[in-house]
């Protein structure tokens, strides 16, 4: 440093330079000096440049050390599917602040002024675009290498599916789809391509019955194709399920039903053709989709029933006729008028009544279920067709006690639906929610009607398909809940509502389910059914052995998909053989309730449990061994599968049935179980065993079970067929 200083002093002393206000000025133009502020001089002569710059960098003098930007990470090439975004980034060093400007093919991108830039959703035209960035500061700027954007065509993505429609005859129809990355479209009808239907929408100018069916559209591009969900087109109205002929015993009622699809809402009128007649006469008041006859005698045999269905287009369709055959026989009682729920004052003495018919002599026993319980206790002395509740049993703590009556004769019993006593300010639900059947994308509405002396509040809950976990629906706090848009994945969901008034106990409604789109069918035994326990896989002839002729077996088969029970008919055959001297124990058809915990792997108890006890739901039991508290065997009955409610009570029992199993013999019976809006009818070998109201779960897994205990028989099920349709309201 001393030598540098000395050289400078000599330079200044040579009179080649002068100072003026802090600036060193060259005295001679020929010296080729460049003027710099703050006393720093750059000389073109190499020796002087070194000398002066060394002097400028010495301690004690002022300096300017700004560094131009340097890129330490260049933007990388990006490849994305059309419709996605691409992100480019750069890393730079240099004196701060640094500024950035991104360019697309040389054109500055407005607002792209950070070290990272993300494009908008890409399109095909973006392919091979070049992106660069210029980084700047006070000392200079630098430009990145170009990064290339490659856009690739992905599979088309359908964002809006075609929607099912119901239209009148001659109405126009437009089906449409919205898809990303679409190049071409092809519409199909019932699986076959429609000539010329190659746009995003398909138009039918004047629909006829030939246009009714299933429509899909296949969307294609260079990467492949995607097919939409099916949209069902219904043109006009069709009857999808006609009334079915029945054979009943004298003293029974017959229930007929119809199901229609198309231009709802529908109206109905049932007609009777008297035995030997040819002209139908309208039945007064028979204006719903189901009709239950009065108790029939032998003179009614040969009567025919049919129904006319009128749709929203004023089209009238007529069902086929169903005939009843009435035979002599002894059957269990039939309840024709059940007891009715009531709202009463504290300390009052309301009277509950039932009307039942059947071969004499009928006996009665009333039961009370305390509020919050599931099981009833016989009321001492309540053994007539009417029961007057004691004042001591209408206190505030008795709010929502439930009552039912069992009517019996020598051939079985019938249990009435429960009647609820609402005490004082309690809440009475007068109209329960109803299961909804909608097309995919449509809305679904559930509603409840309740009364109370106090203002009511509501909270709706939902359990996802196949689960028993109910969660409160946010904002669903009125008497009506509407789910604005539905998907097929919602099918089988269960809903209920809790009604409160801030004073008395809250009340939970009956469950209702949601079904979206076409209802799934139930397959034959050849494939799809799941065996549990001792059940063997299906044989080549599509039969399943549930139990072998050995002790303590429990076998079940289950259809693994959730089914609707609103309008259900199941036919099947059970065959027993190789029985021990005293056969045991029997078999069931079970509608397992997922909202109460049933799954596709639920297993019931063996022995007297018939392989079904312990599976939540409704059980149609065919029992051939008398356990403690059983009705006389053999019998066919309907009851609950929960352990606490097993045979406690059976809803309906018929003990006047032929043997279900016989030692050293093969016994086979054909059964049909039909459920129409809560009315269950069971036939055996073509003869109606009973018909009555049964509270079945709105959605269920279908089980067949059998078991043995200390005694045994081989039990085989075959000939399973079923129809599942949406009820007509």
Set down the secondary structure blueprint.
Elements: H1 2-13, E1 17-20, E2 23-26, E3 33-34, E4 42-43, H2 46-56, E5 70-73, E6 78-81, E7 87-89, E8 91-93, E9 99-104, E10 107-108, E11 116-118, E12 129-137, E13 140-143, E14 147-152, E15 157-160, E16 165-167, E17 173-176, E18 178-180, E19 184-189, E20 192-193, E21 201-204, E22 213-221, E23 224-227, E24 231-235, E25 238-241, E26 246-249, E27 255-257, E28 259-261, E29 267-273, E30 281-282, E31 290-292, E32 304-310, E33 316-318, E34 322-327, E35 334-337, E36 342-344, E37 351-353, E38 355-357, E39 363-369, E40 377-378, E41 386-388, E42 401-409, E43 412-415, E44 419-423, E45 428-431, E46 436-438, E47 444-447, E48 449-451, E49 457-463, E50 470-472, E51 480-483, E52 493-500, E53 507-508, E54 512-516, E55 530-533, E56 544-547, E57 554-564, E58 567-577, E59 586-592, E60 617-623, E61 635-640, E62 652-654, E63 667-676, E64 679-684, E65 687-693, E66 699-707, E67 714-725
Parallel strand pairs: 6-14, 16-24, 26-34, 36-44, 46-54
Antiparallel strand pairs: 1-2, 3-4, 5-8, 7-11, 9-10, 9-12, 12-13, 12-14, 15-18, 17-21, 19-20, 19-22, 22-23, 22-24, 25-28, 27-31, 29-30, 29-32, 32-33, 32-34, 35-38, 37-41, 39-40, 39-42, 42-43, 42-44, 43-62, 45-48, 47-51, 49-50, 49-52, 52-53, 52-54, 55-57, 56-67, 57-66, 58-63, 58-67, 59-60, 59-66, ...
Helix pairs in contact: 1-2
């Amino acid at each position: 440093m001393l030598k540098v200083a000395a050289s400078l002093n000599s330079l200044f002393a040579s009179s080649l330079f002068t100072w003026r206000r802090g600036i060193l000025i060259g005295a001679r133009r020929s010296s080729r000096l460049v003027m710099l502020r703050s006393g720093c001089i750059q000389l073109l002569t190499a020796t002087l440049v070194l000398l002066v710059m060394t002097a400028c960098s010495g301690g004690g003098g002022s300096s300017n050390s700004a560094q131009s930007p340097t890129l330490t990470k260049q933007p990388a090439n990006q490849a994305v599917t059309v419709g996605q975004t691409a992100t480019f980034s750069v890393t730079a060093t240099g004196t701060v602040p640094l500024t950035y400007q991104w360019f697309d093919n040389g054109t500055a991108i407005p607002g792209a002024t950070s070290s990272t830039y993300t494009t908008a959703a890409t399109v095909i035209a973006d392919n091979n675009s070049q992106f660069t960035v210029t980084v700047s500061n006070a000392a200079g700027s630098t430009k990145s290498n170009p990064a290339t954007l490659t856009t690739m065509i992905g599979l088309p993505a359908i964002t809006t599916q075609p929607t099912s429609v119901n239209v009148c005859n001659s109405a126009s129809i437009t089906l449409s789809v919205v898809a990303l990355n679409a190049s071409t479209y092809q519409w199909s009808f019932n699986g076959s391509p429609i000539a010329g239907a190659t746009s995003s929408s398909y138009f039918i100018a004047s629909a006829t019955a030939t246009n009714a069916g299933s429509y899909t559209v296949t969307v294609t591009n260079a990467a492949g194709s995607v097919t939409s969900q099916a949209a069902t087109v219904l043109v006009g109205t069709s009857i999808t399920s006609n009334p079915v002929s029945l054979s009943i015993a004298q003293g029974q009622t017959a229930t007929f039903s119809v199901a229609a699809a198309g231009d709802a809402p529908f109206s109905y009128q049932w007609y009777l053709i008297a035995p030997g007649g040819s002209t139908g006469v309208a039945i007064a008041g028979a204006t719903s989709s189901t009709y239950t006859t009065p108790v029939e005698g032998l003179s009614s045999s040969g009567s025919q029933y049919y129904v006319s269905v009128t749709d929203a287009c004023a089209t009238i369709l007529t069902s086929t006729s169903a005939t009843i055959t009435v035979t002599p026989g002894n059957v269990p009682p039939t309840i024709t008028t059940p007891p009715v729920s009531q709202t009463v004052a504290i300390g009052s003495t309301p009277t509950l009544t039932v009307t039942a018919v059947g071969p004499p002599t009928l006996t009665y026993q009333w039961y009370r279920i305390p509020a919050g319980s599931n099981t009833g206790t016989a009321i001492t002395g309540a053994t007539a067709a009417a029961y007057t509740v004691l004042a001591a049993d209408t206190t505030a703590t008795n709010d929502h006690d439930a009552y039912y009556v069992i009517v019996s004769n020598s051939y079985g019993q019938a249990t009435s639906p429960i009647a609820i006593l609402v005490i004082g300010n309690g809440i009475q639900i007068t109209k329960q929610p109803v299961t909804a059947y909608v097309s995919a994308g449509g809305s679904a509405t559930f509603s409840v009607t309740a009364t109370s002396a106090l203002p009511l509040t509501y909270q709706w809950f939902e359990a996802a398909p196949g689960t028993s976990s109910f969660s409160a629906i946010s904002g669903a706090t009125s008497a009506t809940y509407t789910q604005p848009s539905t998907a097929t994945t919602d099918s089988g969901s269960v809903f209920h509502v809790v009604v409160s008034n801030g004073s008395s106990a809250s009340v939970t409604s009956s469950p209702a389910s949601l079904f979206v789109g076409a209802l799934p069918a139930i397959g034959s035994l050849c494939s799809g059914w799941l065996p549990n326990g001792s059940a063997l896989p299906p044989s080549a002839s599509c039969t399943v052995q549930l139990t072998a002729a050995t002790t303590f077996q429990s076998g079940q088969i289950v259809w693994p998909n959730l089914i609707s029970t609103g309008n259900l008919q199941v036919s099947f055959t059970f065959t027993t053989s190789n029985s021990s001297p005293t056969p045991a124990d029997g078999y069931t058809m079970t509608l397992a309730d997922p909202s109460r915990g049933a799954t596709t792997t639920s297993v019931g108890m063996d022995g007297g449990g018939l392989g079904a006890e312990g599976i939540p739901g409704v059980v149609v039991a065919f029992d051939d061994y008398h356990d403690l508290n059983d009705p006389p065997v053999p019998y066919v009955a309907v009851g609950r599968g929960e352990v606490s409610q097993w045979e406690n009570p059976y809803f309906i029992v018929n003990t006047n049935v032929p043997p279900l199993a016989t030692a050293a013999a093969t016994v086979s019976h054909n059964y049909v179980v039909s459920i129409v809006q809560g009315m269950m009818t069971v036939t055996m070998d073509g003869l109606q065993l009973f018909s009555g109201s049964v509270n079945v779960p709105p959605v269920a897994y279908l089980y067949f079970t059998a078991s043995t205990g200390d005694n045994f028989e081989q039990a085989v099920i075959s000939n399973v067929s079923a129809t599942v349709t949406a009820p007509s309201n």
